[in-house]
Amino acid sequence: MTQTTNPTTKLSILNLVPVRQGQTNKDAIDSMIALAKFAEQAGYHRYWIAEHHNTRSLVSSATQVLIGHTLSQTDRIRVGSGGVMLPNHSPLMVAEQYGTLATMYPDRVDLGLGRAPGTDPKTAAALRRHAHDISHQFPQDIADLQRYFGDDAVQSDVKAIPAIGTQVPLYILGSSTDSAYLAAKLGLPYAFASHFAPSLMPEALHIYRTHFVPSDVLDEPYVIIGCNAIVADSDQHAEYLATTQQQSFLNVVRGRGQPMQPPVDDMNAIWLPHEKAAVMHMTACSFIGGRDTVKAQLQAFQSRYQADELMVMSHIFDENLQQNSYQMLYDIVQDLNQTAKADLSS
């Protein structure tokens, strides 16, 4: 019998901490906390916050500060980075910061790691520890972090206090195939950023699963797929709400920093044909529609890719409608999981 979805599929949320039109930066952070509290109550597995710099529409530059704030305002949900862009940071400082968070909030902190700067070249140059590009040091930086979070027996003269022994779980993030090889070699969980760069996802997942080497933290591959989702009472309403997502990605294409915009009736009045093509390519990994439509989309997607976890981002302007979308999505995934478990046991 064909399995339609992974029976252990988890559902999580990725938040870039966007500033909606009419909001202040503080309002955006308050919205981040409100969504985290909702996610915990609804049953979402984890809540990750991204790292972006020099982007006026996103308030996610000091990721570790936002993660600490979110942990302090919630009780159970895992909170982490989606992710820390290691070329911008000293591994020692990252270990100190996240080791401190893990000490304050045991078994609730995740550390997602990326090798991109998360910003434009000039800002990347201002952030980096050295004048030259050090992204090639990504594997060594990860090895350093593993040591810093490890037990006393693996420490060197330089130690990250109080990170020792916290064993903060590491996740390798990627939007191309390079990190897939690395995650497989190290036996670490792999999260692919299909929510904005879906084209290489099939190849990257194949590489990761084919080359995976079991490790002390994982016996078999663990795949997290980033995706966009907008669920509403009808397909038509979801497609209308999705114009906020389309405008957000259009800002990326145009290199503009507009705040998140309310939905519009006609995107063709806003974008040019080549811009539309670029946005649709970037957002190809999106589940948009009413309950039945999204359920069918998810079934088809999981039948093909078998994600262990979906890391969802929902660009919806109205915060109540955003929460409704996340609730409906959660219910859909729970239904699919129950169906898959029943199929496996029959």
UniProtKB/TrEMBL annotation:
Signal peptide: none annotated. It comes from the Bacteria. InterPro entries: Bact_Lucif_Oxidored, CmoO-like, Luciferase-like_dom, Luciferase-like_sf. GO terms for molecular function: oxidoreductase activity, acting on paired donors, with incorporation or reduction of molecular oxygen. NCBIfam families: oxido_grp_1. To bacterial alkanal monooxygenase alpha and beta chains. This is Luciferase-like monooxygenase. It comes from Moraxella pluranimalium.
